[in-house]
# Entry
Amino acid sequence: MSQQAETLDVERIREEFPILEREFDGTQLVYLDNAATTQTPEPVVETITDYYRNYNANVHRGIHQLSQEASIAYEEAHDRVAEFIGADGREEVIFTKNTTESMNLVAYAWGLNELGPGDEVVLTEMEHHASLVTWQQIAKRTGAECKYIPITDEGRLDMEAAKELVTDDTEMVSVVHVSNTLGTINPVSELADIAHDHDAYITVDAAQSVPNRPVDVTEIDADFLAFSGHKMAGPTGIGVLYGKQHILEEMEPYLYGGDMILKVTFEDSKWNELPWKYEAGTPIICQGIALAAACDYLDDIGMERIERHEAELAAYAYERLTEEDDVEVYGPPADDRGGLVAFNLEGVHAHDLSSILNDSAVAIRAGDHCTQPLHDVLGTAASARASFYIYNTKDEIDRLVEAVHDARQLFA
Amino acid sequence: MGIGSDMYRQQILDHYKNPRNYGELEDADIEHVGENPMCGDTIKMFVRLDDDEETIEYVSFVGDGCAISQASASMLSNELQGRSLEAVRGMDRDDIIDMLGVELSPMRIKCAVLAEKVAQDGIKIHDGELDVEETTTE
# Structure
């Protein structure tokens, strides 16, 4: 492969995202809030409009032509997502609302039934509230205990501590793959081995990794893995829970109702086959089909190329921001991080910084990024976060840094 | 220029950098703390009343957080001197927006009104209507 083919044609990619042309008071938008949600390319938008214009119908119910078309497209979307993450097939891919719902599905369907006093759930200090709050509350209800793998000064997981914390009392290890705050890329495969050595399951929060790097559930040996469509060029309202087939077969359903059943009498019900057993009621049809279109879109670009592009932007942003004496950047060094940089400008609260950046049409996230306990560890209530995707450029990072200079000047 | 720059007019920045009536008050008749956990904004207000127990003689505050929340507390501490508790009970968010004199984006309004809420909840505790342990959030 030539060097040329290894880099993204960002100019061509940007043509697929008309929203990036928006201007605010004559200044072109710089969208650096991709860890919160990514923009949607034309082919995915077209998939959505095509569905509603041409074959909108409920699935699995109608004998008529429209319902057949919608059902086939919806089922095949599961196949496409399975292929995208290296799962064995549609049986292992459950469509949910988002990563949070996927985590709750595991916690309620598995955790509530399997956990009890004396059992332990091992999390990390850098967990997103999606898994932290969920396991914390399920642990309270079952009498189990949550333990947290600490982070090092560099913002990595302390793997020696992890080996100590995971014991034969551990039933579940639930870890974030790429931290949405620190940008740390965690060794999930190694953590899976540690969990399995103690007969525990591992759940991977892949909300910040599936969108921007090759993720293979088989290679990781994840028992469960969760992510969201809207962070990977897909629409909101669609998330995925991957689960190993034999575990999903043993687990009880999380939601009851239509479509998740095979046979119902007044006395009892038999569950439908996988994955429909976990998709009660009319599912998220259009968004599911659009997620498959997003997988096509990303694979056409190439996940390895996307990973390199993001690493390059993150390294550049890290270097530019650490050049500033009064900017504190969180997480591992430039050459080893996911595509985001969280930071603080001394003397300027992250919310003020974000408001001032907004004057320059630079969109970033400011706040706790749904990692309040991690911010306690970092010793700050809030931080600013710039996060990148396939359409971002180094010029845009320069605009970010210029806007940070403006904020400093205003508050001087 | 967008809405944000308007938010940081000289007056707001001045109150943020040089907060008025800043510090704890030893002989306060009312003291109360509030926070916005999402932003980390905290404000503690201290109120000393006149002999009539109904008029505010002096207000001070301590706090930490964004410019909007801290400037709002500083400006409010000035505004409240000499006012009746009754008048403060009747204040609403429009009074704060008028006081700040800037246009606030919806996400930032809760930063602006924290100080007012702390003052009002402090009065409620004084009136025996609110548990002292309760921390104000906005």
Q: What stands out?
A: DSSP finds six helices and three strands in chain B. Chain B has one domain: 3-124.
